[in-house]
Write a structure and sequence with these properties.
The protein is of the alpha+beta class. It contains five helices and three strands, in the order ααβααββα. It has a single domain, classed as Orthogonal Bundle (Arc Repressor Mutant, subunit A), CATH 1.10.10.10. About 60% of the residues lie in helices and about 15% in strands. The longest helix is centred in the last third of the chain and has 22 residues.
Length: about 100
């Protein structure tokens, strides 16, 4: 039986899981691209990103281009936490199929 206590509660929340999944798919994402892809409000997205950043899972980069742009990327800690989370999910799926 999988150990459900090993599911990281910070990642497990639907919005943060979606963010972590997207961030794992490429080197970095601009805020506006994340917002468009996830169909989240500014406030909702910022709140989730702030939580992930405080945990050390997400790095924030602010650049000045034609206009200010903020982008986000998984940190090494974040990528490791996400990989561990996925391993637990795989154990749950496997147990559910047995």
């Amino acid at each position: 039986m999988p150990d459900f206590d090993k599911l990281d509660k910070a990642i497990h929340e639907k919005g943060r899981l979606a963010i972590m999944t997207l961030l794992a798919s490429r080197v970095s994402w601009a805020f506006q691209d994340l917002k468009a892809e996830l169909k989240m409000s500014d406030g909702n997205l910022v709140t989730h990103l702030r939580t992930l950043h405080k945990l050390g899972f997400v790095a924030v980069t602010k650049e000045m281009r034609d206009r200010p742009q903020t982008s986000y990327a998984l940190t090494t800690k974040g990528r490791s936490a996400f990989t561990d989370y996925l391993k637990v999910l795989e154990q749950i799926v496997k147990a559910g199929k047995e």
